[in-house]
Amino acid sequence: MVLAQLGESISQAIHEMSNATIVDEKVLNDCLNEIARALLQADVQFKLVRDMVSNVKKKVNLNNLAAGLNKRKIIEKAIVNELCEMLDTGKPFFTPQKGKTNVVMFVGLQGSGKTTTCTKYAYYHQKKGWRPALVCADTFRAGAFDQLKQNATKAKIPYYGSHLESDPVKIAVEGVERFKKENHDLIIVDTSGRHKQEAALFEEMRQVFEATKPDLVIFVMDSSIGQAAFDQAQAFKQSVSVGAVVVTKMDGHAKGGGALIVAATKSPVIFIGTGEHMDQFEVFDAKQFILRLLGKGDLSGLLDKIEAVDMDQQAELLQQLYHKENITFGLYQYILKMGYQVCNVTSHLPFLLGKSKELAPEGQEKEILAKNKRYIIMMDSMTNEELNCSNPKLINGSRIMRIARGAGCPVGEVMEMLKKYKDIANELSVRLRNMKKQNPRRSDG
Ligand code: GDP
């Protein structure tokens, strides 16, 4: 069962439960059985599915629910939460540290998308101001070095490799040493992948690991392989200490269970690959993934569900805003993303943006949407420090240039985005202050 079908089947099961005249034990069981069947067909491990079902049942005790509570919403929430739990290992994982050289090694079977992912990972960080470099220690696959070279050249990222040297350990060590000397702060090592989990592959991987002492090993997994992913991930984990996982090919006909299966290995999924292009690479967020799976977070197919989703999203945003002293760039990006998803922030969040008419004059919605999309891309090129700040003055000339470079847009447009941010942040702060004054209790909980 492919990803889209899995989402549809789960949504359908929830929908049927919601439409039942009376929500009783039987309706709940039917709904959970349908979801379990869909997950199993998507190749998700039996144990994960069984645990999910029993956890929902434990959390939704129909007999003890007070009268008047919306059972349907409670069940739906419990299901979404449990699906998120399946994906969220809750474990902290290594993220590259500024001010030092970080070595990250990529492992995985041939064809999983390892080489492509190495460049995507480098490109993602380069846009955020890192100085990445790529080392091709894949001497097994003919053409691996040329592929990496081509990708790296396109992204303007320095690379190291050899057509002549056959010892991957030697290349890895030379490459890492060279880029350390050149003060690169993120050195990415691509290793060989074979068709099967063979002893020679693991031995080679272990040797490269010992020689380069990476700060993080990322396992790259093709989401279309279904159940086999669990054994594969386990085998790699036993050979080197895998710290994180990237699940590739989540676009197209991926077996939906892919990301869920990796969860069973208890390694955090940190990114997903959603296409062949360099920027088709997303930070993985369990909740977003599940919402999207259920058709609640994706652009396409969302429009017809706006009515249902809109209020939840508005409530979530409101909740977030209530607990924020400052409107950071990260929050601004989130607002734009949500607005972008539900069509237009200004028309869908009128209660937040009093001057909605002024911000989105009639007839200009399309243009504003396109602009918002570009602003979102610009903020993708901001560092965490920048995203967590609410002071546009921090974004000085060199930062503006870096963001413009990363987003591939003129400097003037970044400045325009900063100005827009300032206007909206001011507007929201005033409205929030007023809301808190009018309803101070809300900010407690
Ligand atoms: P490697 O052998 O593991 O290094 O795999 P490659 O990086 O050469 O990728 C194998 C194929 O998968 C190539 O055709 C890539 O373009 C493609 N690929 C990699 N990641 C993705 C992805 O996220 N989505 C899609 N659709 N294709 C991908």
Automatic annotation (TrEMBL):
<keyword id="KW-0256">Endoplasmic reticulum</keyword>
<dbReference type="InterPro" id="IPR042101">
    <property type="entry name" value="SRP54_N_sf"/>
</dbReference>
<dbReference type="InterPro" id="IPR006325">
    <property type="entry name" value="SRP54_euk"/>
</dbReference>
<dbReference type="Pfam" id="PF02881">
    <property type="entry name" value="SRP54_N"/>
</dbReference>
<dbReference type="GO" id="GO:0030942">
    <property type="term" value="F:endoplasmic reticulum signal peptide binding"/>
</dbReference>
<dbReference type="InterPro" id="IPR003593">
    <property type="entry name" value="AAA+_ATPase"/>
</dbReference>
<dbReference type="GO" id="GO:0005783">
    <property type="term" value="C:endoplasmic reticulum"/>
</dbReference>
<keyword id="KW-0547">Nucleotide-binding</keyword>
<comment type="similarity">
    <text>Belongs to the GTP-binding SRP family. SRP54 subfamily.</text>
</comment>
<dbReference type="GO" id="GO:0005786">
    <property type="term" value="C:signal recognition particle, endoplasmic reticulum targeting"/>
</dbReference>
<keyword id="KW-0342">GTP-binding</keyword>
<keyword id="KW-0378">Hydrolase</keyword>
<dbReference type="InterPro" id="IPR036891">
    <property type="entry name" value="Signal_recog_part_SRP54_M_sf"/>
</dbReference>
<protein>
    <recommendedName>
        <fullName>Signal recognition particle 54 kDa protein</fullName>
    </recommendedName>
</protein>
<dbReference type="InterPro" id="IPR036225">
    <property type="entry name" value="SRP/SRP_N"/>
</dbReference>
<dbReference type="GO" id="GO:0003924">
    <property type="term" value="F:GTPase activity"/>
</dbReference>
<dbReference type="GO" id="GO:0005829">
    <property type="term" value="C:cytosol"/>
</dbReference>
<dbReference type="GO" id="GO:0006616">
    <property type="term" value="P:SRP-dependent cotranslational protein targeting to membrane, translocation"/>
</dbReference>
<keyword id="KW-0694">RNA-binding</keyword>
<keyword id="KW-0687">Ribonucleoprotein</keyword>
<keyword id="KW-0733">Signal recognition particle</keyword>
<dbReference type="GO" id="GO:0008312">
    <property type="term" value="F:7S RNA binding"/>
</dbReference>
<dbReference type="Pfam" id="PF02978">
    <property type="entry name" value="SRP_SPB"/>
</dbReference>
<dbReference type="GO" id="GO:0005525">
    <property type="term" value="F:GTP binding"/>
</dbReference>
<dbReference type="InterPro" id="IPR022941">
    <property type="entry name" value="SRP54"/>
</dbReference>
<comment type="function">
    <text>Component of the signal recognition particle (SRP) complex, a ribonucleoprotein complex that mediates the cotranslational targeting of secretory and membrane proteins to the endoplasmic reticulum (ER). As part of the SRP complex, associates with the SRP receptor (SR) component SRPRA to target secretory proteins to the endoplasmic reticulum membrane. Binds to the signal sequence of presecretory proteins when they emerge from the ribosomes. Displays basal GTPase activity, and stimulates reciprocal GTPase activation of the SR subunit SRPRA.</text>
</comment>
<comment type="subunit">
    <text>Component of a signal recognition particle (SRP) complex that consists of a 7SL RNA molecule of 300 nucleotides and six protein subunits: SRP72, SRP68, SRP54, SRP19, SRP14 and SRP9.</text>
</comment>
<dbReference type="Pfam" id="PF00448">
    <property type="entry name" value="SRP54"/>
</dbReference>
<dbReference type="InterPro" id="IPR000897">
    <property type="entry name" value="SRP54_GTPase_dom"/>
</dbReference>
<dbReference type="InterPro" id="IPR004125">
    <property type="entry name" value="Signal_recog_particle_SRP54_M"/>
</dbReference>
<feature type="domain" description="SRP54-type proteins GTP-binding">
    <location>
        <begin position="268"/>
        <end position="281"/>
    </location>
</feature>
<dbReference type="InterPro" id="IPR027417">
    <property type="entry name" value="P-loop_NTPase"/>
</dbReference>
<dbReference type="InterPro" id="IPR013822">
    <property type="entry name" value="Signal_recog_particl_SRP54_hlx"/>
</dbReference>
<keyword id="KW-0963">Cytoplasm</keyword>
